Amino acid sequence: MFPIPVRPRQMMRAASLAASFALAAPAVAQDKTGLTRTGDALQVILPVMAGVCAIQQHRTADFVAGAVTTELVTHGLKAATRSSSIGRRPNGHDRGFPSGHTSMAFFGATSLARDCWRDRPVAGALAFGAATLVGVSRVKADQHTVGQVLAGALVGYLANGVSLDLSGNHVALGYQMQF
């Protein structure tokens, strides 16, 4: 038997493509429940893919700092605006500002496009398209308004500028966003 060389990047691309096709089917069918499930899955898949890439590129500390920032800012804003008009969801519940699903999806998509697929603009655009689908799924499910989704997208996007330096005898937290 001949050994088959396994390349992690090719496996990640193949898994990503397979997952994208599998998850896109319900959205194409315009099934509200399927679209919601697709959004729920993509809000996890995008940051996980970005996390795997960050580990491979030895950027784990920065990735974790950005993910934690995304969660802290998202949930801090939800608590601060809990029952205000901006925090009210279309379904009548509170804690809607900003969309947490969308913030994590855009955090993952931005990390993928900026750090993992810099030389693959089509792949980066597809990641942002998938993150946008998450936001659409939240609006269609009456969980968020368009403004709440846009705020979540902005939080996730901007959190990619957070960096954490653990070298030497100090810890340094920084921010730099390239546009």
Shape: globular
Total helices: the number is: 6
Approximate helicity band: 55-70%
Strand/helix succession: HHHHHHEE
Mean pLDDT: 86
How much of the sequence lies in strands comes to under 5%
Biggest β-sheet, characterized?
2 strands, antiparallel
Q: What's the domain count?
A: 1
Structural class: mainly alpha
Computed CA radius of gyration, to the nearest angstrom: 17 Å
Overall strand count: 2
Strand order of the largest sheet: 1-2
Low-confidence stretches: 1-6, 25-29
Distance, first to last CA? 50 Å
Concise overview:
The chain contains six helices and two strands; from the N terminus they run H-H-H-H-H-H-E-E.
Note down, in words, how this protein is organized:
With 179 residues, the chain is mostly helical. The protein has one domain (9-175). Helix content is 65%, strand content 4%. The protein is built from six helices and two strands, in the order ααααααββ. A two-stranded antiparallel sheet has the order 1-2. Strand 1 (162-165) and strand 2 (172-175) form a beta hairpin. Helix 3 packs antiparallel against helix 4 and helix 5 (121-140) packs antiparallel against helix 6. It is globular and about 50 Å long. The termini are far apart.
